[in-house]
């Protein structure tokens, strides 16, 4: 019904809302909403024209339903229609709906923008404000694109109403924050700045928010605002409380504006213009003065407003940091607040003082409040306030009051909240180190710290103590004594045990003179804690024990007993077990001299930034930063000469050993970094050579080579640092080999380089091309290298691979033979029986046959044999030989120069009677006790090598000898020597007779070759 | 092991709170209210786990019943108990409503003490309970010592569900086969899923301790009988239930459960259902079948979208049973799109109306005979919306009631033996009734 109270009543809406509120269940509510939605849909159906009132009412209902959490997918058009209404309420609801419900990519956005544009250009200030508010609420990019040009014009136009200007300034701010690239101030800048002079305080307040935001982005363009802001501020500050009427808040003139002005000024350095600066200082003084005046009202709002300005002024003073007078006054003012009833004020005072303490002008002034702050630390009820107090104590600490502050913090630590304990511990540790004049005091403090709050003492803290003790001779004795005493407490924190173990291990001898702390007593004391500790600590203690053996030979028996016990030497933890085994061996094998060298006292740590400080910096963001600034100058006093004091043990140990249980004694990694005598390193290798794999050493490493005769992929080489994997493929006379270098450590290898060389005449037989690898191999990473190989003619030797890199500063050099053998270029050939035997007979000349009889050292498994023969590269021909026991193979060796056909016959003999025959250029015949025949019909001596290689695989040494013999006779000295080398590297105590035989026969030749 | 049991009204106020075990704290009551009753999103799962505590709830009109436990209980057992609890309350004071619960506050606590002991469900047979939990309270003069001791022995005895010495002048027996048929059908008339869940409910007014034997056309029994050549007495098999096709003799029951009075050992060995019935009303068995279901109605939908703003719907329903039978309370519910702005309906039979609050056209027909068909057509006007989402087209659902068992189940006999008293099977008046109702009976459109 149209005529009914066309005002703002909207009875239907009220009824609907009360219906919803009265619903007894969710289902009832949903039913009611569905009904209402259907009703609205039928009204909006389009065939009826709705008047503005009903439209507004239904849009309102939709809005309400949306706010209840239901989706609304219609009614947008009606809302947009409302925008063009002339009634304020209808327009308002339309804008409301749009800012809540319309998303930016709606197709209606053009219509909406159009309506907004109309409103912006209308002369009606309320409509303009509504439009501006809508833009600010939506704040989308499309809106910004459409209106970013329009709004500044409205903002600075002379005839715009004040309220509209206010809205425009805030709207612009919103758009600028949302999409800064679209809002270009350029030409408007100066006029916007001049808004600071506007008559209307509201406009100034709104404009200053905009200016602050803009000037923080590009300060230079808005530089002029400083003087305007200062003059504005001075006008406000000096005005009587009644001058500003509406803008006086509980007797404080324009507090919000003042705060904003002060904050704006903090974007800039102190004004250079003397007059402006004078005026500003005057203002700040007035603000400080006003703080002293008795309050004009008892209301909390009054003091809040006043203090807000005061704190903002103080932050400005701190920001300038150039007016000693003001700084001291600010400090005094804050000092008063320290004892204020209001907790918030105390908190703020402490926080501001923290920054004041870092200024050179006010540092002394802050220090006068030390008692109050300490009191606050102890008595404050609010943990955040206590935290601030602790921060302030840390900030105000210097050489004069360090002892007091550290003592207070230590005593507070016992009752401190868990949340701030770790930070407190770090702070105490840093202060104690930074201002330590007397290092025994430092040691006392840190040990106390560990005792009181062991759980919160991070690794860095106790590393640091050890560094300092090691780097300073004068405290070592004292430290040993104190640690010894501390360890006597029945319950010790694990960190204490760590420090104790380390220090006694290094400097236990300094207190061993006293019968109360004789070596055995020391050891027993440490060992009594052993079983209560975690694995890393135990590992450290084991290292301490071995050091004891060095320091006090009389404890050797006891300690060896401990190391030998099952709980150590068979410990399930591999680290502990290894240490126990190694230390036990070391102590029993090495001479005292060797022990003394290996277990020498740790060298001083290199000087670096304190790791604790780094940790605190990481923990705390901005708060601590200003304090750190003085570190530079403080460090000078602290570390005296500069050669002492030191860095975290972690740094050193991390560099040397990647294992998580850093070996502080530097034992395992003796050679590379710690600078222990180089002899110690090599001795160590001797001692351990029988246990564990030999470390990478210079000289050609052969053991991987032979395995690759019959296979193409696998691991060629592996030690603690490096693993080299191979993948290779061959086609005809070409081959490609992929080498994978894997860094097994967590530390990168630097200047990593590999070279492949072909020694001697191999250069003319084999063409090898490599691609260079990256010089840096990250920890745990793998790099790949491709090698292209071309076989020019038959060859005997293998190319050499040389790898060089630096690991932890030490140069590593590894030489390997690349597994490239002539059989890789075999191409298998299938042929029928008749064909085979025909060819076999053709190759009947004595120099075309090699025959060998050898004894199989392993059992003969058919499958293994087949796999081996296939791996050789030849084709295994089935059903060719009349005797099924025999194996027959055929293949062609592909070289660039020629192709050599090879036929091979392996005749296993189950009888005890054995012969091996290998026929090549010359015939060779030998009696041994094997069960295999091997026929090799070939025209090439290199095939002989293959035979040799196969033989070595099955560890048939005798055959090797024979091969050497054969080669020798053939005049191929190189091959002979190679076979010999193979023989030597594989010499199990099988049968030396043929070898001697060989030697006797050929020794003159060998001599001559060697001399050659 | 139920830890506790709470009853709330629709606002979440606690009406009844009974805690059986110490591991359920006071805050459990609030936890359920906050997390389930007042949850922002409607909680649809009947089991809710909050802080390692499980809440099982059922809702009866506006009343929430929640059982709480910290242990890993058999959820089916808990729900069985909750439903039983509702039945017991209904047997004592009628409808389970807030008003009734408040009025019978003491009685409910008394019942809860009796039917749950330390969280373990006890005898919940209404008949037995009514002998010793009475609304009037036990008064000395009405119940002698003997009677009291008799109750004790009966309740703790082997046949806890029936007391001795019941006498009726007329021995009467009512047997209802109640089935609900569930269906989901594709628009082309292909059955996607269908099953019948049925109950056999009995009301017995028999004297003494009679022994009953119940027989139906279960496939296994019939086959066995057929093979053995022994013809069972066909007795009452023709009572009512004419809807099914005459050719079909037996039905395959997928699974069934029995009242506690049925001797399961006998069922296992001989497949015969024999029992001593409780006095009054009880549910003898429940069963489920999925094969050869008679679908009483076929719904043929036709939905046509005419442009963006119009939708034409035509729905034909066909009844598929003997013309002599009458289906009742037929209701077809046709969902409408969410942006419906107006609906015009024409139907030949019954009444149809667009219900905006439920977003559906509801078509009601009071009665309809078998082998008939009827149709409705509707024009739905739509309002163009911003959403590009297509309408999901929820299925058309249907409600009805037919006087036969859609599963094809037939009662073959129900024999009563009472050796001590002087009445025989012939003296008992027996009534059998079949009612088939719709469960979720939906056709996609």
Automatic annotation (TrEMBL), chain A:
Parts of the chain that traverse the membrane: 942-963, 975-1000
Keywords: Cell membrane, Coated pit, Endocytosis, Membrane, Protein transport, Transmembrane, Transmembrane helix, Transport
Keyword Cell membrane: yes
GO terms of molecular function: clathrin adaptor activity
Localisation: Cell membrane; Membrane, Coated pit
Positions contributing to a 1,2-diacyl-sn-glycero-3-phospho-(1D-myo-inositol-3,4,5-trisphosphate) binding: 11-12, 43, 53, 57-61
Protein origin, superkingdom: Eukaryota
GO CC annotations, alphabetized: AP-2 adaptor complex
Membrane topology value: Peripheral membrane protein
Residue ranges of the region described as Disordered: 624-655
Primary localisation category: membrane
One GO BP annotation of this record: intracellular protein transport
Domain Clathrin adaptor alpha/beta/gamma-adaptin appendage Ig-like subdomain: 706-819
Function, in words: Component of the adaptor protein complex 2 (AP-2). Adaptor protein complexes function in protein transport via transport vesicles in different membrane traffic pathways. Adaptor protein complexes are vesicle coat components and appear to be involved in cargo selection and vesicle formation. AP-2 is involved in clathrin-dependent endocytosis in which cargo proteins are incorporated into vesicles surrounded by clathrin (clathrin-coated vesicles, CCVs) which are destined for fusion with the early endosome.
Quaternary structure and interacting proteins, as annotated: Adaptor protein complex 2 (AP-2) is a heterotetramer composed of two large adaptins (alpha-type subunit AP2A1 or AP2A2 and beta-type subunit AP2B1), a medium adaptin (mu-type subunit AP2M1) and a small adaptin (sigma-type subunit AP2S1).
Family as reported in the entry's similarity comment: Belongs to the adaptor complexes large subunit family.
Protein name: AP-2 complex subunit alpha
Organism the protein comes from: Hucho hucho
TrEMBL record, chain B:
Membrane protein topology class: Peripheral membrane protein
Entry's localization field: Cell membrane; Membrane, Coated pit
Chain ranges of the MHD domain: 170-444
Domain of life of the native organism: Eukaryota
A GO molecular-function annotation: lipid binding
A single GO BP: intracellular protein transport
Keywords: Cell membrane, Coated pit, Endocytosis, Lipid-binding, Membrane, Protein transport, Transport
GO cellular component terms listed in the entry, alphabetical order: clathrin adaptor complex; clathrin-coated pit; plasma membrane
Pfam families recorded: Adap_comp_sub, Clat_adaptor_s
InterPro entries in UniProt: Adaptor_comp_med_subunit (IPR050431), AP2_Mu_C_sf (IPR036168), AP2_Mu_N (IPR043532), AP_mu_sigma_su (IPR022775), Clathrin_mu (IPR001392), Clathrin_mu_CS (IPR018240), Longin-like_dom_sf (IPR011012), MHD (IPR028565)
Sequence positions that bind a 1,2-diacyl-sn-glycero-3-phospho-(1D-myo-inositol-3,4,5-trisphosphate): 351, 353, 355, 364, 366
Family, as annotated: Belongs to the adaptor complexes medium subunit family.
Record-given protein name: Adaptor related protein complex 2 subunit mu 1a
Species of provenance: Hucho hucho
């Amino acid at each position: 019904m149209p005529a009914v109270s066309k005002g703002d009543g909207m009875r239907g809406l009220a009824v609907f809302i009360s219906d919803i509120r009265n619903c007894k269940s969710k289902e009832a509510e949903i039913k009611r909403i569905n009904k209402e939605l259907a009703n609205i849909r039928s009204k909006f159906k389009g065939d009826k024209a709705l008047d503005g009132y009903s439209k507004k009412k239904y849009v309102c209902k939709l809005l309400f339903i949306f706010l209840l959490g239901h989706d609304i997918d219609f009614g947008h058009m009606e809302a947009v229609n409302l925008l063009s209404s002339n009634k304020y309420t209808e327009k308002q609801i339309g804008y409301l709906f749009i800012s809540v419900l319309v998303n930016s990519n709606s197709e209606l956005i053009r219509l909406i923008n159009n309506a907004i544009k109309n409103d912006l250009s209308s002369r009606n200030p309320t409509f303009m404000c509504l439009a501006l508010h809508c833009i600010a609420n939506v704040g989308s990019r499309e809106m910004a694109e459409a209106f970013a040009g329009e709004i500044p014009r409205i903002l600075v136009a002379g005839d715009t109403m004040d309220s509209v200007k206010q809205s425009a300034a805030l709207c612009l701010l919103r758009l600028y924050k949302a999409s800064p690239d679209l809002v270009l101030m350029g030409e408007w800048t100066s006029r916007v700045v001049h808004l600071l002079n506007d008559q209307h305080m509201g406009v100034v307040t709104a404009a200053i928010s905009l200016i602050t935001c803009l000037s923080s982005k590009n300060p230079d363009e808005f530089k002029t605002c400083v003087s305007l802001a200062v003059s504005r501020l001075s006008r406000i500050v000096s005005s009587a409380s009644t001058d500003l009427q509406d803008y006086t808040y509980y007797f404080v003139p324009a507090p919000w504006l003042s705060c904003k002005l002060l904050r704006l000024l903090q974007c800039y350095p102190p004004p250079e213009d003397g007059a402006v600066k004078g005026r500003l200082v005057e203002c700040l003084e007035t603000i400080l003065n006003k703080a002293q005046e008795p309050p004009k009202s008892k209301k909390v709002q009054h003091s809040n407003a006043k203090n807000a300005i005061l704190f903002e002024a103080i932050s400005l003073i701190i920001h300038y940091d150039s007016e000693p007078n003001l700084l001291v006054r600010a400090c005094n003012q804050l000092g008063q607040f320290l004892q204020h009833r209001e907790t918030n004020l105390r908190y703020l005072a402490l926080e501001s003082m923290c920054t004041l303490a870092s200024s050179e002008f006010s540092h002394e002034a802050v220090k006068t409040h030390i008692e109050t702050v300490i009191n606050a630390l102890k008595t404050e009820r609010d943990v955040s306030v206590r935290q601030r107090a602790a921060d302030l104590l840390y900030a105000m600490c210097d050489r004069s009051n360090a002892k007091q502050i550290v003592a207070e913090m230590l005593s507070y630590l016992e009752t401190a909240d868990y949340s701030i304990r770790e930070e407190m511990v770090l702070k105490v540790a840093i202060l104690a180190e930074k201002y330590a004049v007397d290092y025994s005091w430092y040691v006392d403090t840190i040990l106390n710290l560990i005792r009181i709050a062991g759980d919160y003492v991070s690794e860095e803290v106790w590393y640091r103590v050890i560094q300092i003790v090691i780097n300073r001779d004068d405290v070592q004795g004292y430290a040993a004594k104190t640690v010894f005493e501390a360890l006597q407490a029945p319950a010790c924190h694990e960190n204490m045990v760590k420090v104790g173990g380390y220090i006694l291990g290094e400097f236990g001898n300094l207190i061993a003179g006293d019968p109360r702390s004789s070596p055995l007593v020391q050891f027993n004391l440490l060992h009594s804690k052993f079983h209560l500790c975690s694995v890393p600590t135990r590992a450290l203690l084991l290292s301490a024990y071995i050091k004891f053996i060095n320091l006090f030979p009389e404890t050797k028996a006891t300690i060896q007993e401990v190391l030998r016990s099952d709980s150590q030497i068979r410990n399930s933890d591999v680290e502990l077990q290894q240490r126990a085994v190694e230390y036990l061996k070391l102590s029993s094998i090495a001479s005292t001299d060797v022990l003394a060298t290996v277990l020498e006292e740790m060298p001083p740590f290199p000087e670096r930034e304190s790791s604790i400080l780094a940790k605190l910096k990481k923990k705390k963001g901005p708060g601590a930063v200003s304090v750190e600034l003085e570190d530079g100058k403080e460090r000078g006093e602290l570390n005296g000469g500069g050669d002492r004091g030191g860095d975290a043990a972690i740094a050193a140990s991390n560099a040397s050993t990647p294992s998580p249980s850093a070996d502080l004694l530097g034992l395992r990694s003796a050679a590379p970094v710690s600078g222990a005598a180089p002899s110690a390193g090599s001795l160590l290798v001797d001692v351990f050579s029988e246990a564990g794999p030999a470390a990478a050493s210079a000289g050609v490493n052969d053991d991987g080579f032979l395995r690759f005769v019959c296979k193409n992929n696998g691991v060629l080489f592996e030690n603690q640092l490096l693993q080299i994997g191979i993948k290779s493929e061959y086609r005809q006379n070409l081959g490609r080999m992929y080498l994978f270098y894997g860094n097994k450590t967590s530390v990168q290898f630097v200047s990593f380089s590999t070279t492949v060389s072909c020694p001697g005449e191999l250069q003319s037989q084999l063409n090898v091309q490599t691609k260079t690898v990256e010089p840096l191999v990250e920890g745990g990473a793998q790099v790949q290298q491709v090698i292209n190989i071309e076989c020019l003619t038959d060859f005997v030797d293998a190319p050499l691979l040389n790898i060089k890199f630096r690991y932890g500063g030490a140069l590593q050099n590894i030489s390997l033979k690349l597994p490239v053998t002539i059989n890789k270029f075999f191409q298998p050939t299938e042929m029928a029986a008749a064909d085979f035997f025909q060819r076999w007979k053709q190759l009947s000349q004595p120099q075309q046959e090699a025959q060998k009889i050898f004894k199989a050292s392993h059992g003969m498994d058919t499958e293994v044999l087949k796999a081996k023969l296939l791996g050789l590269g030849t084709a295994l021909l089935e059903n060719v030989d009349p005797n099924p026991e025999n194996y027959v193979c055929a293949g062609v060796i592909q070289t660039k120069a020629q192709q050599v056909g090879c036929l091979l016959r392996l005749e296993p003999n189950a009888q005890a009677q054995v012969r091996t025959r290998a026929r090549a250029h010359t015939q060779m015949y030998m009696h041994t006790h094997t069960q295999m025949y091997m026929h090799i019909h070939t025209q090439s001596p290199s095939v002989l090598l293959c035979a040799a290689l196969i033989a070595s695989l099955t560890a048939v040494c005798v055959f090797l000898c024979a091969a050497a013999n054969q080669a020798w006779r053939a005049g191929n000295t190189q091959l002979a020597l190679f076979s010999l080398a193979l023989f030597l590297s594989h010499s199990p105590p099988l049968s030396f007779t043929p070898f001697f035989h060989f030697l006797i026969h050929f020794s003159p030749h060998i001599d001559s070759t060697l001399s050659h | 092991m139920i830890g506790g049991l709470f009853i709330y009204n629709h606002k979440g106020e606690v009406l009844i709170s009974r805690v059986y075990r110490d591991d359920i704290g006071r805050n459990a009551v609030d936890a359920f209210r906050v997390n389930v009753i007042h949850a922002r999103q409607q909680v649809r799962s009947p089991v809710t786990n909050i802080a390692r505590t499980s809440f099982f709830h059922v809702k009866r009109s506006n009343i929430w019943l929640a059982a709480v436990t910290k242990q890993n209980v058999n959820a089916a057992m808990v729900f069985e108990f909750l439903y039983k609890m509702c039945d017991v309350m209904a047997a004592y004071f009628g409808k389970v409503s807030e008003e009734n619960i408040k009025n019978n506050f003491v009685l409910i606590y008394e019942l809860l003490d009796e039917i749950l002991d330390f969280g373990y469900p006890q005898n919940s047979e209404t008949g037995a309970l009514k002998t010793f939990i009475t609304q009037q309270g036990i008064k000395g003069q009405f119940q002698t010592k003997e009677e009291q001791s008799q109750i004790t022995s009966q309740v703790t005895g082997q046949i806890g569900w029936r007391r001795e010495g019941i006498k009726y002048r007329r021995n009467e027996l009512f047997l209802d086969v109640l089935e609900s048929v569930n269906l989901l059908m594709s628009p082309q008339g292909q059955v996607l899923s269908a099953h019948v869940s049925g109950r056999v409910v009995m009301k017995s007014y028999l004297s003494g301790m009679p022994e009953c034997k119940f027989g139906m056309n279960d496939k296994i029994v019939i086959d066995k009988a057929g093979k053995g050549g022994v013809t069972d007495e066909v007795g009452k098999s023709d009572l009512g239930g004419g809807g099914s096709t005459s050719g079909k003799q037996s039905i395959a029951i997928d699974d069934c459960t029995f009242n506690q009075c049925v001797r399961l050992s006998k069922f296992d060995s001989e497949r015969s259902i024999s029992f001593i019935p409780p006095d009054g009303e009880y549910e003898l068995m429940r069963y489920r079948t999925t094969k050869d279901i008679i679908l009483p109605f076929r719904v043929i939908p036709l939905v046509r979208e005419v442009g963006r703003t119009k939708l034409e719907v035509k729905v034909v329903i066909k009844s598929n049973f003997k013309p002599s039978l009458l289906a009742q309370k037929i209701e077809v519910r046709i969902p409408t799109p969410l942006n419906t702005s107006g609906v015009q309906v024409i139907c030949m039979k019954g009444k149809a109306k667009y219900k905006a609050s439920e977003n559906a056209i509801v078509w009601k027909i009071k009665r309809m005979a078998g082998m008939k068909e009827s149709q409705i057509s509707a024009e739905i006007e739509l309002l163009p919306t911003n959403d590009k989402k297509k309408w999901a087209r929820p299925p058309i659902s249907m409600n009805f009631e037919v006087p036969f068992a859609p599963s094809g189940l037939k009662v073959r006999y129900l024999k009563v033996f009472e050796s001590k008293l002087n009445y025989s099977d012939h003296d008992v008046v027996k009534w059998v009734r079949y009612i088939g109702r719709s469960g979720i009976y939906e056709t996609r459109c």
